[in-house]
Design a protein that fits this description.
Elements: H1 2-30, H2 41-71, H3 77-104, H4 113-119, H5 131-158, H6 162-186
This protein binds fe (ii) ion (FE2).
Fe (ii) ion binds next to loops.
Length: 188
């Protein structure tokens, strides 16, 4: 009985190995079509689309920062006015990096307000002059950007798109640190 049982297990393992072999073959063939960078075409199109979505959300974050830089009021005006400028300058650089990554991957970066609004999911801050509300807006905006970036991080890891992956990795680490600092500021 035990011999019969072992034999059955071996047969099942054999069938499973053959099945895995076939599956691997089909998956490999499905991904065979690669672009000039050696990245799979189909998956890269999805990554381009997600980078464009990130770009759109980033532009809204950037405008949020411009808004609070201009409208901030109160006793901490001078500190925050400068801090928000530092953040929007940094965002501007990142926006350019995302757009140029889209181009590097063979896509076209979105550049109209119409497209940005269509893809945006982050809170739009309007006429915010209160310092705490302004900092909350930054934390909320960054939290949402982190979700999009982690999604891109996962997808780019699967296809070894190291360029996009490393970019997301850097953005995530920096934004997590900014969230920590903003939350430390809110705890006074
Ligand atoms: Fe200014």
């Amino acid at each position: 009985m035990i011999v019969f049982y072992n034999a059955n297990i071996k047969t099942i393992n054999l069938i499973y190995s053959v099945f895995r072999g076939f599956l691997g073959y089909f998956v490999k063939n499905k991904n065979m079509k690669t672009n000039i960078l050696g990245l799979p075409v189909k998956e890269t199109e999805i990554i381009i689309s997600e980078l464009n979505s990130l770009l759109s959300n980033y532009q809204v974050y950037y405008q949020n920062l411009r808004g609070i830089h201009w409208n901030i009021r109160g006793k901490r005006f001078f500190d925050l006015h400068v801090k928000f400028e530092e953040l929007y300058n940094d965002s501007q650089l990142k926006i350019d990096m995302i757009a140029e990554r889209v181009l590097t991957l063979g896509g076209t970066p979105l550049h109209t307000f119409e497209d940005y609004i269509k893809h945006n999911k982050i809170e739009v801050g309007k006429n915010i002059s209160n310092d705490e509300k302004a900092v909350h807006l930054i934390v909320n905006s960054l939290s949402h950007l982190l979700i999009l970036e982690r999604e891109i991080l996962n997808k780019t890891a699967v296809v070894n798109d190291e360029g996009s992956n490393a970019m997301m990795s850097d953005f995530i680490a920096e934004q997590e640190k900014t969230i920590w600092m903003m939350q430390a500021w809110l705890e006074e």
